Amino acid sequence: MALQTDIALLDGGRLLPLVEDFYTIQGEGFHSGKPAYFIRLGGCDVGCRWCDAKYTWNPKLYPPTEITTVVERAASYPAQAIVLTGGEPLLYPLDPLCEALHDRGLEIFLETSGSHPFSGRFDWVCLSPKRQQPPLKEAYARADELKVIIETEEDFRWAEENARQVSRKCRLYLQPEWSRSEEMMPALVEYAKANPKWNISIQTHKYMRIP
Predict the structure, then answer these.
(1) Within 13 Å, how many C-alpha atoms sit on residue 100's CB side?
(2) How many CB atoms lie within 10 A of CB 142?
(3) Cα–Cα distance between 161 and 106 in angstroms, integer?
């Protein structure tokens, strides 16, 4: 598979297909509102039709970048939090990147579909499961936060299927798919009120007009 053929070029994870890295405010989920440095990797084989980062899907568009370059940039900003996202970051060996970031005293928050085996050590794992490529069993055990995208009312059942598989300490979030947020929000509000184990996540960065 094309996404896997370039692994040999990554020097065990010392090089990674970097799409972009930038300092911003986390807009979603448990850490919403927190200043953080985002590291976005290229490559995704999940293929959500509503994905707002489709430009990341083809890793061949993003030549391997030395992680030392990214770590130096990340450590130069005031925030102590790193959001590692994609694409799907777990396509790649992440141990060298995580070790280098932790050596600089930085916390690492992973955003993942959980559909690939874990590598790396994280301080927080946000699992966002997708029907077309469900998470591996190990992902449920690692999740600190479960964030389920709600596009239709059928997705509430999908959310509950996933909630039954995470640990009791995992925080649960329902997030409306952006293009249908106004339409779906009343249903999310009523569902959360009836099932208060769930919180609602909103993509606040889009309201703030920041990346």
Answers:
(1) 17
(2) 18
(3) 33
Fill in the amino acid letter for 118: F
Distance of CA 165 to the CA centre of its chain: 18
How do strand 15-25 and strand 35-41 relate by DSSP bridges?
antiparallel
Q: In what order do the strands lie in the sheet with 15-25?
A: 64-66, 15-25, 35-41, 81-85, 107-112, 124-127, 145-150, 171-176, 198-200
- The single residue listed with the structure tokens 């994905």 is 51
**pLDDT for position 8:** 66
The CA angle 154-203-122, to the nearest 5 degrees, is 95
- For 13-66, write each residue's pLDDT tens digit: 999 999 999 999 999 999 999 999 999 999 999 888 878 788 899 999 998 999
Mean pLDDT of the chain: 94
Band (pLDDT 50/70/90 cuts) for residue 73 is very high
Burial 171-190 (b: 16+ CB within 10 A, else e): bbbbbbbeeeeeebeebbee
Model pLDDT, residue 6: 61
